[in-house]
Prior knowledge:
Blueprint lengths: L14 H13 L8 H43 L14 H5 L6
Amino acid sequence: MSRLAFACPVFDVDFVRWAQYQIKLIREREFAQLDIDKLLDELAFIVSSRKNAIKDRLRVLILLSQFRKAVNDAMLETTLPRSAFPDTLPYSTDQLLDHSFMP
């Protein structure tokens, strides 16, 4: 029995200790002791979370670009000066990413 086997924290009880223990097992090359199924789930979750974060940031960038174009279009259409329009998008990033937000 490995010297590490007795100290295995439970994933559902203390995630941080479980993750630190998995790191320790990898560093000590104790691969047979790894909680492979949970590690795969966590890696898949991390990838999914990062993809969602990138998508959200891209949405904000697209909205900002669309805002600038809309202001330029409105200036041409109304002949109002640039000063008649807001300099920046009047909504926060959180508001723009909130699917229930309605300006």
